[in-house]
Amino acid sequence: MKSPLKVKNLTVAYEKKTVLKNISFEIPEGKLIGIIGPNGAGKSTLIKSILGLVPSLTGTVEIYGKIPKMQRNLIGYVPQRESVDWDFPTDVLDVVIMGQYGHLGWFKRPGRQEKELALNCLKQVGMDSFSNRQISQLSGGQQQRVFLARALAQKAQLYFMDEPFVGVDAVTEKTIISLLNDLKEQGKTVLVVHHDLNTVKEYFDWVILLNEELIEIGETKKVFTKAYLQKTYGGKLMMLDAD
Amino acid sequence: MWLQLIQDPNLRWILLGSIFLGLSSGVIGCFTYLRKQSLLGDAVAHSTLPGVALAFMITGSRNLWGLLLGALGTSLLATFLISYVTRKSRIKQDASLGIILSVFFSLGLMLLTIIQHSSRGNQSGLDKFLFGQAASMVRSDVNTIVIVSIFLLFICAVFFKELKLLCFDFEFAKGLGLPVILLDHLIMLLMVIVVVTGIQIVGVILMVALLITPATAARYWTDKLHVMVIISASFGVISGAIGTLISANVRNLPTGPVVVLIAVCLFVFSLLFAPKRGLVVKLLLRKKLRFLQQNQLLQQELEMEAKHEY
């Protein structure tokens, strides 16, 4: 049984400064995994370098035993919302259809099948009534759900999500986490860069504690402890409740 | 009088050239607008001038292919320099753009002056490249524009969905495995080609307006990219055609300014009257809502009074 993601000796630097140092880990299938760490820890960079969006100095990445480039059809990606200009002339349905471009290939045009799949994905995030809405008219939570629907349309096995819970309303947050659990039940694996320590125990089976280096990785109940968190956050952590 | 003009076969050819230029400029203008690279089009246009001058000095003729090659050469060099300076120094892209544009353009003007002073000077017709003169085109010039435009339209149609995704979400496109750098360069290359073929009609100085204005005007009318491209192309065609018709019939009137003025009129019209986003429509909508609101308040008051009378 190949692991969905195996990272070995990953080092990423940006303008002479190391952002990630010698990261190595392996994750099990069918889990919700949170990537936790202080600001600037390299959490987004970790995802981006795995996907090949930023170059790495050293290291290998294996997704189900092969390099990411060969496994594009198994990967789903939800980038940060602010990476996009939401005033772009397109509607909600179109954005979700874009998730299928990888499957369509170069010269095929999206047809009825793609449209139906896209509507289905929108239904799963509760946004199907918005399918003709111009994306600039969406709230933050709605935008996030559209991004999620697009990732669902990628029909992946391994999902990467970059801070999907930032700035979303409570309803959206509930929708997202419920959807992630559905994915888990289908045997898929989800890696989420997460910022809110309060919800880690509730949401994630496993955590990756990161601060330039890999502090620890493992089951939340074993790894998400005061001791390890102190190590991850250094002096910056204000204690919330006794662990 | 206008019908008579279109009877003139020469004018018909020239009109065809302007129409195709408006078409391709409107199309690629949408993509450069969405990539926020419109000003790069200005730098490209201005930096073609020394290339055109040098080509004339070297070949001694006004052959369009020579001039286009020269224009392509210096504009690509300028584009490279802009990104090189931005990457390797502390200068930001907008300043880098301004500097390179000015340097190349000044060089071009100096070379033009040298040409004017030389024995061939008066015959060069190169000064027409500053503001454009559609009427100076010969049939082979028009053929070039038409071929280039059809090629551009074909490319944009074939790669439409990839270009759309690239402009909307670069990172996601990269994540899907799209060759984003290549596609980005493709957009730039198509823009350079349009600019280089367009400067003979609209001129070096105002070419950028034909890239930006139709696309910006089209944005007001729709929220769908493929519709925006069609409207932008139409606006480009209208500007090019009317601009050419007018300038061809007024002595010594360069084409560029007229084309630009038509394009701007279309833009102002869009700004005011486009449904949903137009200013006039927004104003009328606000008035209507206010009227309805007041009506509602009045009704509520009447109902309250009726209740009190019991």
Care to describe what's here?
The complex is a heterodimer of chains A (243) and B (310). Chain A is of the alpha/beta class and 243 residues long. Chain A has helices at 43-50, 92-98, 101-104, 112-124, 140-153, 170-185, 200-203, 220-223, 226-233; strands at residues 5-14, 17-27, 32-36, 58-62, 75-78, 158-162, 189-193, 206-211, 213-219. Chain A contains nine helices and nine strands. In chain A, a hairpin with a 2-residue loop joins strand 1 and strand 2 (17-27). In chain A, helix 2 crosses helix 4 (112-124), helix 2 runs parallel beside helix 5 and helix 4 packs across helix 5. Chain A starts with a strand and ends in a 10-residue tail after the last helix. Chain B has 310 residues and is an all-alpha fold. Chain B has a domain at 2-212: ABC transporter involved in vitamin B12 uptake, BtuC, CATH 1.10.3470. In chain B, helix 3 (38-59) crosses helix 4. Chain A binds chain B through residues 48, 51-53, 69, 72, 75, 77, 79, 83-85, 88-91, 94-95, 98, 101-102, 104, 106-107, 109-110, 134, 136, 150, and chain B through 34, 158-159, 161-162, 164-165, 167-172, 174-178, 219, 222-225, 228.
